[in-house]
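Dear support,

Our group has been running a series of protein-ligand predictions, and this particular one with FE2/S2 (inorganic) cluster is the one our PI (initials K.S.) wants archived with full inputs and outputs. We had some confusion internally about which version of the output was final, so please treat the block below as the authoritative record. The input we submitted was:
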Amino acid sequence: MEINAESCALDLDNRTTLLDALREHLGLTGTKKGCDHGQCGACTVLVDGLRMNSCLLLAVALDGAQVTTVEGLSSDAVLHPVQQAFIDHDAFQCGYCTPGQICSAVGAITEAASGWPSAATAQERPVGSVALTEAEIRERMSGNLCRCGAYVNIVSAVAEAAEAAREAG
Ligand code: FES
Ligand code: FES
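Confirmed final output from the archive:
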């Protein structure tokens, strides 16, 4: 696999999930284990640009895939705009869900900009031209739970990052 833009060869038991490969074999503990069965979103990473629950993926099935974790979003000590927005909007309390929320938001903003429909929009969105409403952000982020209930500030952070991405084209 390519993990955070670095080629990586792993010799794993074929039952190892991507989540355990990241945390236990590569020391990338930014990706969190919440439920370990696809219900909370704490383990969300980007696989070939799409957000996925890493607890539900077998690492051996991802031979050749490009995986991005929360550690791989920043570059040269500069935070990704979504990471910065979460800080600016104080969009966390304990922070346990935050890496998954951030990876999911990066994926959600890309999906919305590329015209993927959501239940809230109910139809194809015009590519890149429409700001995300609060309802759409909440629907697109609904796979990521926050036990601290920091949802109001998470929505503000995602809205700001989405708007900045939209303005940047
Ligand atoms: Fe993967 Fe909860 S740990 S969805
Ligand atoms: Fe604590 Fe979300 S900030 S679970």
